[in-house]
Amino acid sequence: MASAAAAPAKRWAREYETIYILRPDVDNDVAEKVVDRAKDVIARLDGTLTKLDNWGKRRLAYPIQKNSRGIFVYLKYVGYGDLVAELERNLRLLDEVVRFQTVLLAEDIDPASVAVDPEEVQYLHVEEEEETEDVELERARSLGMAPRAPREAPFGAPREEVAPQDAGAPAKAAAEAPAAEAPVAEAPAAEAPVAEAPAAEVPAAEAPAAEAPAAEDDTEAAAEESTEAESDEDERREG
C-alpha cells in the first residue's frame, strides 16, 4: 500500500506545432541561431522536438513591419503547457522574429511513446533563386488570371523580320473603303416607290381630254354654216 501511494501520477503530454516568421533580410547563420534557441527551450522543459522544417522565403498575406516577405520556420513537438508559454516568450524577445503562432494538435500523449527521426529535426538552409517568379503569380498565369511575360527568343536564333509596309497602303485602304459600303449606296433604290408618285397623277394630266366635246361642237357649227352657205348659193342660182 505504501509503495503504491508513493508512485507519482503519470503526466500526459500534448502535441503542438509552432510557426514563426523571420525578417526576409536574415541570413542563414542568424536563422540557425534562432532555431538552436527554440531547441534549447524545448529540451530544457522536458519536451521532444519531432519535426523541423524550413519553408523558405514566402509572400505575406499583408505587410508586417514594412516587409512583404518573410522566412517561415515550422516546429512540431510534444510537451506540456508551460513549454508553449516559455517558447513564445523567447521568440517574442528576438528582433529577428516578426510573427509566431502555436496550435494544439493532440492531447493525452505518452512522451515515452514518441519516436524521433534525426533527419526530421535537422535545419536545412533554403537557397534563394535569382529573380524567380512567385509561385502564386505563376499559378495565376496558368489559370489565365494574369498576363504572361513575353518569351524571349533563344540566344543566336534568327529574329523574325517584319516586311516594311507599303507607304500607299493607307491610301489604298481609304480608296477601297467606299466599295465595302456598297450596301449603303443601294438605299435610294429602296425609295423607288416614292419616285413613282407622279405616275399616280396621270389622270390629272388627262384632264384636257375631257374638253374634246367642245371641239366637236365647233365642228358641227362649222358644218351647219357650210350647209347654210350652200342653200343660199342654190337660191341665188334659181333666182
Q: Can you characterise this structure?
A:
- The protein is built from nine helices and four strands, in the order αβαββαβαααααα.
- With 239 residues, it is α+β, with helices and mostly antiparallel strands.
- The chain has a four-stranded antiparallel β-sheet, covered by helices on one side.
- Helix 2 (28-44) packs antiparallel against helix 3.
- The termini are far apart.
- The model is unreliable at 178-185 and 187-215 (pLDDT under 50).
* Helix-residue proportion: 25-40%
Q: What CATH first level of one domain would be assigned?
A: Alpha Beta
- Average pLDDT for all residues: 73
Q: Based on helices, strands and strand pairing, what is the structural class?
A: alpha+beta
Question: What is the fold's blueprint, element by element?
Answer:
Elements: H1 2-6, E1 13-22, H2 28-44, E2 48-64, E3 67-79, H3 81-93, E4 97-109, H4 135-142, H5 169-180, H6 182-185, H7 192-195, H8 202-205, H9 212-238
Antiparallel strand pairs: 1-3, 1-4, 2-3
What attributes does this structure have?
single chain; 239 residues; alpha+beta; Alpha-Beta Plaits; 4-stranded antiparallel β-sheet; 39% helix; 22% strand; rod-shaped
Question: Summary?
Answer:
The protein has 239 residues and is α+β, with helices and mostly antiparallel strands.
